[in-house]
Amino acid sequence: MYVCLCHAVTDTQIKEAVSQGDSSLNDVKKRLGVGDQCGKCVKMATQIIQRQLDVEPNYYEVA
Question: Helix H segments across the chain?
């Protein structure tokens, strides 16, 4: 599903960005450009980021 129409960013791309280490809207914005034009996608992008972090915590295990 398209989340950011201004930059043609999908929910899958946002999830992949979180999987690659992005943990905030600012991180995803730097990588994909989400939310830097009209801003209508910010709420949905933030929700997707949070859900993905809940499923896939962004930390390294210590032996």
Answer: 11-19, 25-32, 42-55
